[in-house]
Design brief:
This protein is of the alpha+beta class and about 240 residues long. The chain is built from five helices and eight strands, in the order E-H-H-E-E-H-E-E-E-E-E-H-H. It folds into two domains: about 110 residues, no CATH class; about 90 residues. Helix content is about 35%, strand content about 15%.
């Protein structure tokens, strides 16, 4: 679903029901971008790219996976050789120990295949995560999460409004300063409510009155690298000492 920044802004304004002068347009747009960044960490985009072999074992990630974002993205799976869908071929996936996406040579990060060297006639089908970004005033996001993202952005805007009212140079207990503190508290409460709604809609816990800690569990093969299928640690010792 491609959504324009103006559409997101209008939806956020509708959720806030705030006066247009509470925050500037540019400030609201910056907070929408911040909400997209946070959402990307909670539910990153997944991109699939076919990479043609060159009979080698090293593939520079920056040029092989152009949407890969250093410091954010990670490879989830590698299908090799890539199946021909039209021929109903069954996909074959490499085992985690058959690839390393974090091999560095000077300043270049490589995908290293210790046991394979794909020929120029073969392709690898690589699935990896990427953040959602606004390009040409629009962003592609899942339709089902449009209002969740809008709610998070509204929560961040509400917190910014609360911060604005909490800053006052009046050192006396005047009517104006009391009014500002009251408004700050109201907007801070609204922010917590909206961000709690976002977390609840995303299954992250932390709804109104709830905990922000998410209870999770997974089954994993102890003989796999911690970066697959998700980020985790070795139970007793690091990769280099096993």
């Amino acid at each position: 679903m491609s959504v324009s920044l103006s559409t997101l802004s209008a939806t956020v304004d509708g959720i806030l029901s705030a006066d247009n002068d509470e925050l500037s347009v540019l400030r609201r747009q910056d907070l929408i971008k911040a909400a997209l960044e946070r959402y990307s960490h909670d539910a990153p985009d997944e991109i699939v790219t076919d990479v043609t072999g060159d009979a080698g074992k090293y593939y520079p990630i920056a040029t092989s996976l152009t949407s890969f974002v250093e410091g954010f993205s990670r490879i989830i799976s590698i299908e090799y050789p890539a199946a021909t869908v039209a021929s109903d071929e069954a996909p074959t996936y490499l085992e985690p120990e058959d690839w390393d996406d974090n091999y560095w040579a000077v300043s270049v990060r490589y995908l290293w295949l210790p046991s394979h060297a794909p020929a120029a006639t073969e392709k690898m089908r690589i699935r990896f995560t990427a953040p959602y970004t606004i390009s040409a005033g629009a962003v592609d996001i899942p339709t089902a999460h449009f209002y969740s993202i809008s709610t998070l952005a509204a929560g961040l805007c509400a917190q910014a409004i609360a911060d604005k009212y909490s800053r006052t140079s009046d050192s006396t207990l005047s009517i104006d300063s009391v009014d500002h503190l009251s408004r700050a508290q109201q907007w801070a409460s609204r922010s917590r409510e909206l961000i709690g709604m976002y977390k609840e809609s995303m299954g992250l816990g932390g709804g109104e009155g709830g905990s922000s800690v998410q209870g999770t569990g997974e089954f994993v093969d102890w003989d796999t690298a911690p970066s697959w299928p998700s980020v985790r640690r070795w139970l007793y010792h690091g990769k280099g000492s096993r």
